[in-house]
Amino acid sequence: MTFSYFNRPTIVQKFEKKQYDVVVIGGGITGAGIALDASLRGLKVALFEKHDFAYGTSSRSTKLIHGGLRYLKQLEFGLVKEVGSERAIVHKLAPHLVLAEKMLLPLSEGKGMGSFLTSVGLKLYDWLAGVKPEDQRRMLTRKQTLKREPLLKPDGIHGGGLYAEYRTDDARLTIEIIKTAAANGADILNYCEVVDFIYQDSKLVRVKVKDLLHDKVYEVRALSVVNAAGPWVDELRVMDKSKRGKQLHLTKGVHLVFPFEKLPVKQAIYFDVPDGRMIFAIPRGRITYVGTTDTDYKGNQEDVITSKEDALYLLEAVNEAFPSVKLGLSDIESSWAGLRPLIHEEGKSASELSRKDEIFISDSGLISMAGGKLTGYRKMAERAVNLVVNLNFSNRELQKCQTDKFKLSGGDFKNARQVKEYTKQLNIKLTAIGMADFTDYLVTNYGKQSDTILDYLSKINGKITHVELAKAELWFCVHHEMVVSVLDFFVRRTGILFFYMNRLPELVEPILNELKVYFNWSEERLAIERLKLEKATDEATLKN
Ligand SMILES: Cc1cc2nc3c(=O)[nH]c(=O)nc-3n(C[C@H](O)[C@H](O)[C@H](O)COP(=O)(O)OP(=O)(O)OC[C@H]3O[C@@H](n4cnc5c(N)ncnc54)[C@H](O)[C@@H]3O)c2cc1C
Questions:
Q1: Looking at ligand 1, which atom is closest to the CA of residue 372?
Q2: What is the full DSSP assignment across 471-540?
Q3: Rounded to whole angstroms, how far apart are CA atoms 97 and 104?
Q4: How far apart are alpha carbons 515 and 444 in whole angstroms?
């Protein structure tokens, strides 16, 4: 059965009939990881996501699978070791989607940790993360640093460090984990909100789920329930009447996207900003994105957007570090804003809060997981599922955690070399139809699933343009990735709203029309979807 809206009725039927070992609430990276781990161990799993998969923080991060150099400063060695080691594992699971990327760390007079401490820190970072000798950090002279990044303000630069990180697409990583879990028996749906809990002898035994697409409510039986609702974790703890002790502290982080020619950095760079924080500038094809901010957030969690103030902060930081670029608000091509679901610590500012994950178990048995990183999703899932097993299924013969070896969908490559070989082959096919420019885009988004998209494309008569390509992608995403709305496609499956704004004007109407046909939408529904896209575009471009 494919992971498609058209199979929704079959999945809903299962929800009504089955008793699940684990019900996971939340289809971000945390919930996705837990659903995959639990299903691979042989547990019966259901996952509910109230928006689209990765709608929350998991489509709004810096999109790095990184060891978190800044956590060294906070002396969080355990966290650096865990997420640092995880990078190589996650890269192996999906080498087309998690790509090695060198990061430049310029060193400036009076800022950061200074050359000696940075050199030792990066060495420690490599050691903790088990980085291969050939990828270990290199310290650079002032001349080498400025040669690597000529845009840097030369005053005060006295050297630099070059170290290994990985880049990804957070929403695509989440959807591939979700699909892999579904292919391994988990029953998963988006647009299904857990609206209530049902108890027996004070123990949580069922969740009430509202199917937001069909306005129907049903009850799902669960032997254990994991709350992986990210910034909404505490809302569910309130529903469970168990929000006591530690609680969430939400901080907002914003990224701005510029056309590459406006900020032509030669490589990813992690630089100091005047207030003592550090931010990233990451080139990605035709754009460069910059982020992030880190400010306390108390607003509406359903509507987190980039404010002018956020944008001005980042613009000032970029213009200070790269004075020749002189960027202004009108240069912003797109943006995104997300919330970090961190654990509150008295007296600590947004930037000082730990990124460590924690688990809370309520008297009713609700297991809530908060904090953590995209990078650490696999280990977080392992901890959560270990706990579920120990608490509820210690008498069952179950598999051990297998997620360190289990390839994600689309990622059936042994290593980066095989990805290169596949890219070459795909490029030959795309060149033949005049679409060679899209080779890297397809491989990094879909991996080996690009073949399925190309098969579909080969059936289209006439000239192939990026519009036909997008239609073929849409067909794939509707039939294999549970897309049901225009933003699912433009934001979370393709990233077009962030990275390919130049394509959007020509794509909007053809994609809306295809969706109308697939889902038999009325004119009214079509207008609603068009409005949603306009609103999201205005927000991303700060025109709201
Ligand atoms: C600006 C920023 C930059 C970051 N950069 C990085 C980075 O580069 N690398 C890294 O490793 N980490 C990074 N992080 C951290 C990382 O993105 C988060 O830790 C991670 O995405 C959190 O995932 P999650 O699944 O816990 O939460 P979410 O992704 O928010 O998922 C929770 C989901 O639960 C759903 N939900 C809520 N309530 C219900 C309900 N009642 N019923 C059903 N579903 C519900 C929501 O709709 C949501 O989709 C960054 C975070 C931010 C904010």
A1: 19
A2: HHHHHHHHHHS---SHHIIIIIIS-HHHH-GGGHHHHHHHHHHHHHHHHT--HHHHHHHHHHHHHHHHHH
A3: 21
A4: 24
CA 487 – CA 495 distance, rounded (Å): 10
Sign for the CA dihedral angle at 190, 449, 65, 376 comes to: positive
Burial of residue 189, with CB atoms counted within 10 A of its CB: 0-12 exposed, 13-18 middle, 19 or more buried: buried
Q: What is the mean pLDDT of residues 246-251?
A: 92
Residues with CB under 6 A from ligand 1: 25-31, 48-51, 55-58, 60-64, 66, 193-194, 228-232, 236, 253, 292, 338-341, 372-375
**Amino acid 111: pLDDT:** 66
What sign for the dihedral angle of Cα 205, 211, 212, 215?
A: negative
d(CA 459, CA 454): 9
Tell me the residue type at 409.
Answer: S
Q: What was the pLDDT predicted at 214?
A: 94
Question: According to the 3-state scheme, what is the secondary structure of 176-187?
Answer: HHHHHHHHCCCE
Say how far apart CA 489 and CA 479 lie, in whole Å: 12
The whole-angstrom separation of Cα 477 and Cα 53 is 12
In the numeric block, which tokens belong to residue 475?
């067909």
Q: What angle do CA 256, 115, 84 make, to 5 degrees?
A: 60
At CA 93, angle to CA 92 and CA 94, rounded to 5? 95
Number of C-beta neighbours around residue 101 at 10 A: 18
Average pLDDT of the chain? Answer: 94
Amino acid identity of residue 525, one-letter, is R
Residues 472 and 230 sit within 8 Å (Cβ to Cβ): no
Kind of pairing between the strands at 192-200 and 367-370: unpaired
Q: String of b and e for 12-48 (b: at least 16 CB within 10 Å)?
A: beebeeeebbbbbbbbbbbbbbbbbbbbbbebbbbbb
Q: What 3-state DSSP class applies to 13?
A: helix
pLDDT per residue as tens digits for the range 349-386: 777 777 788 999 999 999 999 988 999 999 999 999 99
Provide the pLDDT confidence category of residue 122 given band limits of 50, 70 and 90. Answer: confident
Question: Max alpha carbon distance in the chain (Å)?
Answer: 70
- Out of 30, 61, 65, 173, mutate this one to test ligand 1's pocket (max ligand atoms within 8 Å of CB): namely 61
Residue 229 alpha carbon, nearest atom of ligand 1:
34
CA 478 to chain centre: 20
The tens digit of pLDDT for each residue in 21-36 reads 999 999 999 999 999 9
